[in-house]
């Protein structure tokens, strides 16, 4: 089916009604003139995947193709002049080319010549179908002067039109042109979606299909499960001294209980696209509308018939919108009463935010899916192993990087039922289940029954130093990233572990983390996966170092490391050595050793499952303990002493910072420090991705520094390090993304603010759809979740940027608010923020800067007795105007100003936030900017 839809978002509902009325399963649904600006989300159709054109010259262009999930179709966007086009390979000898040529191109000569050249490339295909809105009139006796040239050009390639019926008024602008010896039929259906009729093309092709496994719907009968579990006796577990036997008995008992009381039904893949708001009444109205439309064409000069048709058409369109709006509004209202998850799922449907299903099934060979899924598993297993085994361990590692052995030892104390119950209650309910099918909801529902045996198993594991083998079985689900969907390298392995294993891991991780933090065993440079530390703290440390040194007229260079598959290349023997150095010994070390070895994983894609393979490298992905163990592994790297430099790390995201008086000195320090770090990485089997590791030379002004051309940093991989080696050099860049913030060489953050503005503008489409059906409370909740959450991320770092830089972001924020609340374009800015009860970007910066400084100050009651009681925190003595935009100066300066007016020092953080928000909401733009003005 082909349809010129003239805005896919506006007319998608009518298209779905048309598809429902035909009661057919269309293999391909081809839509042209889709109005695809870059911000649009494409509506999802059940049972279909889609592809779309990206190179659209104007917002009124675009082609979208929906194809059945069972079809093994490959596609690409073509570069035919003056049009949008998509190439679809249906099978080895059949292709379909979908084209939309906008009417704005009056002269189609370039298009015809480009199309002709393209057809030469595909002449070896036996069956070629071109379908789309070409905007060249090929009706018989056409007056279009280019029609003959167009048809003759196609005829020379063996292509002939399947019809010449009018499709737009009295002109034939929507074409089906084909080269084939097979039987085919083309229909022109008079429809009223737009002023273009619908093309229906039937073709007996030998489609390349893949059999999709039927959808499995499982429903647990909890009434029967309650009765069944009440008969189970777990007393035998308490007499077991082997933790493997105890854990296996519990897991098999629970899995068997679930299996017996779960009803499994297969849902056919054959689905007719139908929405609940498509009622029999609206279908009758649409049929009457179509009859009037046909009558209107038959009597084009009868004004009464035309007026009657237009009025009835408008009535039907409004009725259709009203029915859909009422349905979506009722769904949203019901979702609010159920749960936040249900609410967000409904919002995604209403705003077309749902993404296409996972494409991992394209990794399967239809003739031998088991071999395919085994290959995927082997690839993921060997991914980290192959990288790690490229490095050879230096036997004298300890002499190069001395390790301080901690004399004290950790003791993993027993847990109790209260702790286990608290862990279960705090677990997320919507997590995926492992191969045992035991969900978090199941554990919470039956916690009174399960807490005692789980507590016994956890304590038995801690006592014997053995982690149950049934807890070490992972199931991998490949998640598509980008690129060729048939290439396994373009997928990220997501590991799902048994839910019960996470309880034991949380018990161990809590004790390990408390031990490491209590004795300050982790480097102060490490900010990842640690309590009371965040990405914002790491980026603050980075910018504070750069700003304070630039303020002192120093030269600063930062190297941003990129480690390839760091978590997957961890060497287990080396990790156990590091754990022992940190005081984890005897039974406790035996427990960690047992936890890290004897692990297996399998890959599941749809209904196909691979064989289990052993995992010999890396920390367990998807585990609770994995991140903490990784921190202990690279802890000695964070403690490496580099001259005139500093290491900042958030897990494996690391930056090396260097400062000196001259560029020559700072590059010398950077090279020496980088060599030392690179040597550590090799000895610990971690691989540096040289192509993605870059450095930035920072300056206060965006000016060219000729000296920088003479310096470089080399990633030495040779044994003899000297200036004549041919080792690769690191690339210098002016901007890099670090922990979600775009860091540029002048810390102006104009790249970050520009990208953030684009992301905020993309939300306009979502709020435009949402405002039709949601009340203001829901809209405001979604605004805070989708928009303000983006604005406040690390805002204390970049929010002090100049007014001219911030202006584009504030305009994007205002655009979202106006669309959300259906306010006019010229609605006054001051009234906008008051009416919506939200803060502008600059006020958000002031708020979060003050709150961060408030949390850093230790309250002392004696300060309230001082004569100048608003002076409660010192400000760094930074001289340049450049440094006055950053938290290292502005935090204390701004806090003292606000405390002088509002006396917030003695307030709790929550009370401080409430006071600041209320006050900031009532001040104007100029007053907010004056708060940031520093008098010289």
Automatic annotation (TrEMBL):
Q: Which GO terms describe its biological process?
A: DNA biosynthetic process
Read off the SUPFAM superfamilies from this record: DNA/RNA polymerases, DNase I-like
Among InterPro entries, the record links this protein to: DNA/RNA_pol_sf, Endo/exonu/phosph_ase_sf, RT_dom
Q: Where is the Reverse transcriptase domain?
A: 460-743
Question: Which protein are we looking at?
Answer: Reverse transcriptase domain-containing protein
Q: Look up and give the organism this protein is from.
A: Parnassius mnemosyne (clouded apollo)
């Amino acid at each position: 089916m082909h349809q010129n839809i003239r805005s896919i978002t506006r007319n998608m509902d009518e298209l779905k009604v048309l598809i429902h009325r035909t009661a057919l399963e269309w293999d391909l649904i081809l839509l042209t003139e889709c109005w695809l600006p870059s911000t649009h989300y494409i509506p999802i159709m059940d049972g279909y995947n889609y592809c779309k054109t990206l190179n659209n010259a104007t917002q009124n262009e675009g082609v979208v193709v929906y194809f059945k999930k069972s079809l093994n179709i490959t596609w690409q966007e073509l570069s035919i002049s003056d049009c949008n086009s998509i190439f679809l390979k249906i099978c080895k000898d059949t292709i379909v080319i979908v084209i939309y040529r906008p009417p704005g191109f009056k002269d189609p000569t370039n298009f015809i010549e480009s199309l002709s050249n393209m057809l030469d490339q595909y002449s070896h295909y036996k069956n070629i179908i071109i379908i789309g809105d070409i905007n060249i009139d090929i009706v018989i006796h056409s007056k279009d002067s280019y029609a003959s040239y167009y048809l003759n050009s196609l005829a020379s390639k063996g292509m002939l039109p399947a019809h010449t019926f009018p499709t737009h008024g009295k002109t034939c602008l929507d074409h089906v042109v084909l080269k084939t010896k097979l039987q085919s039929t083309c229909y022109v259906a008079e429809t009223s979606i737009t002023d273009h009729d619908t093309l229906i093309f039937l073709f007996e092709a030998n489609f390349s299909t893949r059999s999709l496994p039927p959808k499995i719907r499982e429903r647990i009968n909890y009434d029967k499960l309650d009765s069944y579990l009440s008969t189970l006796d777990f007393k035998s577990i308490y007499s077991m001294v082997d933790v493997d036997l105890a854990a296996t008995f519990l897991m098999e008992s629970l899995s068997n209980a679930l299996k017996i009381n779960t009803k499994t039904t297969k849902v056919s893949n054959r689905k007719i696209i139908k929405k609940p708001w498509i009622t029999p009444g609206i279908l009758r109205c649409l049929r009457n509308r179509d009859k009037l439309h046909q009558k209107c064409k038959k009597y084009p000069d009868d004004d009464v018939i035309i007026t009657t048709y237009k009025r009835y058409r408008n009535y039907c369109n409004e009725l259709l919108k009203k029915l859909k709006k009422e349905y979506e509004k009722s769904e949203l209202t019901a979702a609010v009463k159920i749960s936040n998850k249900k609410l967000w799922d409904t919002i995604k449907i209403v705003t077309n935010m749902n993404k296409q299903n996972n494409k991992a099934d394209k990794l399967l060979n239809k003739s031998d899916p088991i071999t395919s899924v085994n290959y995927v598993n082997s690839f993921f297993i060997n991914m980290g192993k192959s990288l790690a085994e490229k490095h050879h361990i230096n036997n004298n590692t300890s002499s190069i990087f001395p390790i301080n052995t901690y004399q004290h030892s950790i003791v993993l104390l027993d847990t109790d039922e209260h702790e286990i119950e608290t862990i279960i209650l705090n677990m997320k309910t919507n997590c995926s289940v492992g191969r045992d099918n035991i969900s978090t909801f199941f554990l919470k529902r039956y916690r009174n029954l399960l807490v005692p045996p789980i507590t016994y198993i956890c304590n038995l594991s801690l006592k014997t130093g053995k982690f149950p083998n049934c807890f070490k079985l992972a199931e991998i689900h490949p998640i598509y990233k980008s690129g060729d969907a048939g290439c396994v390298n373009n997928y990220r392995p997501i590991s799902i572990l048994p839910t019960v294993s996470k309880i034991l891991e949380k018990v161990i991780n809590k004790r390990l983390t408390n031990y490491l933090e209590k004795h300050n065993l982790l480097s102060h440079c490490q900010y990842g996966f640690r309590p009371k530390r965040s990405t914002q703290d790491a980026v603050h440390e980075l910018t504070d170092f750069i700003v304070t040194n630039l303020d002192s007229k120093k030269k600063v260079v930062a190297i941003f490391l990129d480690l390839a598959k760091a978590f997957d290349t961890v060497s287990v023997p080396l990790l156990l050595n590091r754990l022992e150095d940190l005081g984890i010994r005897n039974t406790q070390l035996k427990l960690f050793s047992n936890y890290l070895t004897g692990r297996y994983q399998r890959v599941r894609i749809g209904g196909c499952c691979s064989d289990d393979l052993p995992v010999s490298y890396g920390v367990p992905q998807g585990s609770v303990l994995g991140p903490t163990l990784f921190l202990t592994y690279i802890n000695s790297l964070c403690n490496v002493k580099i001259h005139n430099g500093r290491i900042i790390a958030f897990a494996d995201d690391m930056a090396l910072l260097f400062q000196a008086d001259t560029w020559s000195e700072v590059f010398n320090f950077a090279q020496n420090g980088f060599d030392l770090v690179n040597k550590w990485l090799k000895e610990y089997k971690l691989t540096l991705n040289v192509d993605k590791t870059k450095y930035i030379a920072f300056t206060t002004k965006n000016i060219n520094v000729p000296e920088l051309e003479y310096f470089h940093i080399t990633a030495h991989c040779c044994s003899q390090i000297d200036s004549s080696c041919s080792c690769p050099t690191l690339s210098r860049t002016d901007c890099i993304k670090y922990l979600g913030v775009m860091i540029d060489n002048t810390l102006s953050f104009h790249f970050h603010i520009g990208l953030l503005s684009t992301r905020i503008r993309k939300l306009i489409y979502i709020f435009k759809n949402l405002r039709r059906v949601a009340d203001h409370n829901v809209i405001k909740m979604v605004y805070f979740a989708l928009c303000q959450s983006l604005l406040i991320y690390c805002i204390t770092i970049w929010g002090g940027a100049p007014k001219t830089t911030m202006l584009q972001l504030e305009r994007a924020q205002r655009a979202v608010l106006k669309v959300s609340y259906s306010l006019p374009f010229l609605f006054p800015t001051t009234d906008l923020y008051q009416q919506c009860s939200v803060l502008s970007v600059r006020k958000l910066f002031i708020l979060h800067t003050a709150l961060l400084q408030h949390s850093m100050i230790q309250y002392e009651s004696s300060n309230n007795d001082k004569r100048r009681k608003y002076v409660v925190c010192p400000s760094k003595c930074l001289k340049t105007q450049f440094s006055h935009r950053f938290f290292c100066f502005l935090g204390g300066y701004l806090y003292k100003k606000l405390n002088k007016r509002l006396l917030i020092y003695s307030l709790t953080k929550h009370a401080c936030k409430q006071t600041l928000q209320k006050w900031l909401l009532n001040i104007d733009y100029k007053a907010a900017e004056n708060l940031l003005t520093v008098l010289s």
